[in-house]
Amino acid sequence: MSQLTPILPKRSASPRIVLSRFNIKWPALFLLAPAIIILFAVGIYPLVFAVDVSLRQYQLTKPYLGTPYIGLQNYILVINDTLFWQSLFRTFTFFVLTVPLQVISGILIAIFLDNLNIKWLSGLLRVILVLPIAITPTVIGLVGRLLFNRDFGFINFLLSLVGIEPIPWLGEPLPAMLTIALVDIWQWTPFITLVVLSGLTLIPHDVSEAGQLDAGRGWHFFRSVQLPYLLPGLTAVLILRTADILKLFDMVFVLTRGGPGVSTELVSLYVQRIGFRVFDMGVASAQAILLLVLCIILSRAYIRFFYREIQA
Amino acid sequence: MTRLKYRYVLVLQFLFSFLIIVGFLFPIYWMLTTALKPLRDTFAIPPVLFFQPTLEHFEAIFAEGAVLRSLRNSIIVATFTTITALILGVPAAYILARFDFKGKSNLWFWIISNRFISPIVVALPFYLIARNLQILDSFIVLVLVYLTFSIPLVVWLCIDQFRAIPREVDEASHVDGANLWQTFLLVNLPLAIPGIVVSAILVFITSWNELLFALLLTRNEARTAPVEAANFMTGFGIRWGPMMATGALIALPVLIFSLIVSRNLIRGLTIGAVK
Fold it and tell me: If both were cysteines, with which of A16, A123, B132, B209 could A136 make a disulfide (CB 3.0 to 4.6 Å apart)?
C-alpha cells in the first residue's frame, strides 16, 4: 500500500502535472487508513476472536470449567449435530418456498409496470414498492402476528369469506413455515421487481421494436428479447437472496421465535439460541465459522460475476 | 387497436395496479389503523373498517416512557453511526476512486464481502469482547458494531459518486496549487453531496432497523426501539394497540426516508451491481 499512485486519466492532456503535483503518498494514506483500520478492528478482529473461541471449551454458564483449548472438538460436535443440519435444511426449505415465487411474481409485476403507459400511476407504484423493502423487519414481524392471528387476524377473516376454517398459522409447524414464507414474499418481491425494471430499461428501443416485429409480445418476446438483459440482475438477486436468507433473523424472531418447537428455527436463529440461550459460546462460534465459510463462498461468487473490472 | 379494446386494457391496468397497491400497502395500513382503534375494535369479527379513532394507545406508551426512551436511544445510535461512517467512509471512497495501489483489488473484495457476512457470526465474538471490555449495554458498542455494515455501505456508494466527477476537476485544482486535502474537501466533497446524502440515509435506515445486535448487546440503558417493540411479544396478554402504536412510531421515519432515496435503494442493496 506504500505505492499509492494516481489513476491517470486515459486521454489526459497533461499527465505531467498530475504526476508532479500528486506527490502525495502520505496525505492519501491518511484519508484511506482510518476507515480501513476501524473496519479491520470491528470486522476482522472479532472473526479471528471467534475462530479462537471455536477451538476452546467456552461455556458462559460454567465459568469454573475455564476456557481451555480442546482442538476441533466443537467442530466435530457441530458436524455431528443433526439439529444444526436440520436448521440449515429448514433454511433451504424456506429458500425454496420463497425465492422462486418472488422471482416469478417480481418479473410479472415488473413487466406489467414496464407496459403501463399511465405515467403517474407507474410512478406511484414504483414508490410504493420501495416501502416493504425499507420498513423495519421487526415491525413487519409484529404486524404479521396481528394479521396471522388465529382468532381475529385479517388473513383468517379473508379465508372465512371463501368458507375456509380458521388456520392456526402460528400454532402449528407447517402453517408457521408458510407464514414466515408469505411475509418474506410480501417483503422481497418488490426488490426483484425493481431490479428487473432497471434491467428492462437497459433494452435499447430498436432492439425491443425489432424483437416485437419478430416475436410478437408474449412469452417468446420475453424469452428471446427481454430475458438476456435481465439475467445479470437476476443472478445478483439469486446470490443476494441466498445470503440474506442465511442472515435472516429479525422478522422470524419476532413472528415465531423459531417455533412452534423448532419448526421455523432458521440457521441464524439456531446459532443465536446456542450462543445466547444455551450459552455454549464454543459450539456456537464453531457454527458461526462454518456459516462464515458459506457467506464467503457466496460473496466470492457475487464478486466474480459483477466486479470483473477490479479482478486485475 | 379499437377504442373499445383500448378501454378494456385501461380498466384491466387500473384493476391490476389497484391490487398491487392494496396488496403491498395493506399491512402498513392495518398497523396504522390498529394503532388508532379502540381495543375492542381490534378483536372485532368481521374486522371493522370504520371506527372512532383514538390516541389512547399513543398516550399509554408516552406515559410509560420506555418506548420514548428506546426511540431516543435509536436516534442517538443511528445518528452517531451515520456520522462516524461518513467521516471514515467518504475520504476512503475518494482515495479508492482516484488512486491505484498494490492490493487495491483485495481491499475492494474485502469491503464488498462485508455485505455477505451473517450478523450472528459477528455478534457472538462481539458480545464476548464487549463483555470483557465492560461496554455491553452502551451506545458505543452498538455504534462500533454497526460500523461493520455502514462503512462498506458508505464506501461502495460514494466510490460511484466520486468516479462520476471528472478527473479534470482534480487536475485543474492541482494546477491552481491545491494539495490533496484541499482538492478533496473544497472541490470534490461539494460535488459529491448527493451521493453522500443517499448513503447517509441508507446507513441511518439500516441502523435504525437493526434488531439482532441490539437485542444481544444491550439490556436496559442502550436498548433501541426495535428491541423494545419485540419485547411486546413476551409475557401474557399482548397489548395490540400500544404494540402497533410503537410499530408505527418506528416505521414512520423509515417510510419517509425511504421515499427520499427510493431511486437509490436498489443500488445500495445490490452494492452497485444493479444501478
Answer: B209
Q: For residue B186, what pLDDT is reported?
A: 92
Q: What is the DSSP string of A193-239?
A: HHHHHHHHTTS-HHHHHHHHHHH-SSHHHIIIIIHHHHHHHHHHHHH
Query: Contact, B246 vs B226, CB < 8 A?
Result: no
| pLDDT tier, A309 (very low <50, low <70, confident <90, very high otherwise) | low
Residues on chain B touching A309 (C-beta within 8 angstroms): none
Q: Chain A residues with CB inside 8 Å of B172's CB?
A: none
Residue B118, C-beta contacts closer than 8 angstroms, at least 6 positions apart: A243, A246, A247, A268, A288, A291, A292, A295
Question: What ranges do the domains of chain A cover?
Answer: 15-74, 80-310
- Nearest-Cα distance to chain A for B112, in Å, is 8
Q: Are A164 and A235 spatial neighbours (Cβ–Cβ below 8 Å)?
A: no
Side chain identity at residue A198, one-letter code: S
Q: Given pLDDT bands bounded at 50, 70 and 90, which one contains residue A145?
A: very high
Site from A142, A162, A304, A306 to mutate, B interface, most B CB atoms within 10 angstroms: A142
Facing B105 at nearest CB: one of A4, A292, A312: A312
Q: What is the pTM of this model?
A: 0.91
Question: Using CB atoms and an 8 Å cut-off, which of residues 41-100 of chain B contact chain A?
Answer: 42-47, 87-89, 91-92, 94-96, 98-100
Name the packing angle between helices B139-163 and B119-133 (round to 10°): 130
Q: How far apart are CA B260 and CA B194, in angstroms?
A: 11
pLDDT(A19) > 50: no
Helix count and strand count (H, E) for chain B: 15, 1
Our CA-based measurement puts residue B256 at a distance from the nearest CA of chain A, in whole angstroms, of 9
CA distance A276 to chain B (A): 8
Residues pairing with A69 in the sheet: A56
A168: closest CA among A158, A179, A182, A181?
A: A179
What pLDDT, in 10s, does the model give residues A254-304? 999 998 999 999 999 999 999 999 999 999 999 999 999 998 998 888 888
Cα separations in angstroms, B237 against B116, B230, B232, B243: 38, 14, 9, 11
Helices (H), B100-138: 104-113, 119-133
Residues of chain A found within 8 Å of residue B117, distances taken between Cβ atoms = 43, 292, 295, 299
Report the residue count for chain A: 312
Summarised one tens digit per residue, pLDDT across range A26-62 is 788 889 999 999 999 999 999 999 999 999 998 888 8
CA A141 to chain centre: 17
pLDDT in tens, A295-308: 899 888 888 888 76
B270 to chain A, any CB pair closer than 8 A? The answer is yes
What is the CATH code of the structural domain delimited by A80-310? Answer: 1.10.3720.10
Contact between chains at B99 and A6 (C-beta distance less than 8 A): yes
Strand-pair partners of B99: A6
